[in-house]
Design goal:
This protein has 2 domains: 189 residues, FAD/NAD(P)-binding domain, CATH 3.50.50; 212 residues. The protein has 7 helices and 21 strands. The strands form 6 sheets. Strands 1, 2, 3, 4, 5, 6 and 21 form a 7-stranded mixed beta sheet that branches. A 5-stranded parallel beta sheet has the order 8-17-9-10-13. A 3-stranded antiparallel beta sheet has the order 14-15-16, with no helix packed on it. The radius of gyration is 23 Å and the shape is globular. The chain starts with 6 loop residues before the first strand and ends in a 10-residue tail after the last helix.
């Protein structure tokens, strides 16, 4: 790690796509800054995904300010190592002033002359007038406390450390959580010949393609042009409950060239679906009797949440889109109240139960009851402190590859005047 400056105008914390995008805008504004990255190599949190991970968004969405997608497969879906490599390459393309292996251990206000912030890092202290927190929304793996009731015989691991089925012991596998990671891992295990049980939560699903185009084509247009036609993605201020900021992402997959992931079809093909994981007592797992309701929610999600917005955009923009050709699939798996892990031959439980935010290192009273920062479009009540790259910073796209650019541009327009930190 190169030596850190003792004082500087701005510090960006995190060298994933959000932090690097912010670095690009700061450079365009002529602002002296550094980017601190706790890892010892570039690539962001993509490096933590399992071996067969692929983007759920098309490759063309991996376009960053100052470096548009330039590959030969814009409509494909990048594997893990390629997207991590692209993020690393972006840092080189824009000559971002990244300091690796520089974890921030504490962020606080300076207590003496000049104002600004003091960052205590593994490489020493840095004083800055402005700080941009871009550490993402995938920080602490979330494993429910009920996991402690499971038999010691059963291997438990979070999707954060899962890499491939080949590394797991023989036997059936229970995947707990049916957001994007859970559904994709369950499919992968099933295709590898494993007996799979999937504990289904309250998550929606969306079609891979709708009216002739990938779903992300329509989401991109809603986010960038929807306002021209009186429609758009919902914004965070329109959510009926702030807890929805942390709701699971709808089912979607970039595997096999990109395909729909329908839980009913997965059940018909041999994956055993059960309700939400409630509790465990040794070899016995109790599940909620909510499987049918959760499947119905998944079925309704797109039509109730997104379809109307997309259709309105298509109509008002005068786009000659093909008709909706989706075909319903009917299969009703049985409800069960309990799983006997030993009887079912289940040797492994994979928790695909998401992540928790962890800003415990920020010594400022700016967080709400869910541990998320209080802000308006990334601007906090503390002058000079900003956030980006977290879910629902502005809308559902804020934590995505194609969403961080607009959010960073918004923050760049609201930069504090350069201040002394002497």
């Amino acid at each position: 790690m190169s030596e850190l400056p003792g004082r500087i105008d701005a510090v960006v914390i995190g060298a994933g796509q959000a932090g690097l995008t912010m670095s690009w805008y700061l450079r365009q504004a002529g602002r002296e800054h550094i980017v601190l990255e706790r890892r010892d190599r570039l690539g962001g949190a993509w490096q933590d995904r399992w071996d067969a991970f692929r983007l759920v968004s098309p490759n063309w969405t991996a376009s960053f300010p100052g470096w548009e997608y330039d590959g030969n497969d814009p409509d494909g879906y990048m594997p893990r190592d390629e997207i991590a490599g692209r993020v690393a390459r972006y840092a080189e393309v824009i000559d971002a002033p990244v300091h690796l292996a520089a974890a921030v251990e504490r962020l606080q206000l300076r207590t003496h002359g000049g104002g600004g912030f003091r960052l205590t890092t593994t490489g020493g202290a840095v004083d800055a007038a402005q700080v941009f927190v871009a550490t993402g929304g995938f920080q602490i793996p979330n494993i429910p406390s009920t996991s402690v009731g499971l038999s010691a015989r059963v291997l438990q691991l979070h999707s954060h450390v899962y890499r491939s089925q080949a590394a797991l012991p023989d036997g059936a596998i229970l995947v707990v959580g049916s957001a994007q990671s859970g559904v994709q891992i369950a499919e992968e295990l099933h295709e590898a010949g494993r007996r799979v049980y999937l504990s289904v939560g309250h998550c929606g699903r969306v079609p891979r393609r709708y009216r002739g185009s990938d779903i992300f084509h329509w989401l991109w247009n809603l986010r960038t042009r929807g306002h021209e036609f009186g429609t758009s993605l919902p914004t965070v201020d329109k959510l009926p409950d702030p807890r929805l900021r942390f709701a699971c992402n709808p089912h979607l997959s970039g595997h096999r060239g990109g395909h729909d992931t329908n839980l009913r079809r997965m059940a018909a093909e041999g994956i055993s679906l059960v309700g939400r994981f409630e509790d465990a007592d040794g070899e016995r797992v109790r599940v909620a009797q909510d499987l049918a309701a959760n499947l119905q929610f998944a079925d309704r999600f797109f039509d109730e949440q997104w379809r109307g917005r997309i259709d309105t955009f298509i109509e008002r923009a005068g786009i000659d889109a093909s008709p909706d050709d989706r075909q319903p699939f009917s299969f009703h798996p049985p409800e069960v109240a309990e799983l006997d892990l030993a009887a079912e031959g289940i040797s492994t439980v994979i928790w695909t139960s998401g992540y928790r935010l962890d800003f415990s290192w920020i010594d400022l009273p700016i967080f709400d009851a869910q541990g998320a920062p209080r802000h308006v479009r990334g601007v906090t009540e503390v002058p000079g402190l900003y956030f980006l790259g977290i879910p629902w910073l502005i809308d559902q796209g804020s934590a995505t590859l194609f969403g961080v650019g607009r959010d960073a541009a918004h923050l760049a327009e609201r930069l504090e005047a350069p201040a002394t930190t002497a």
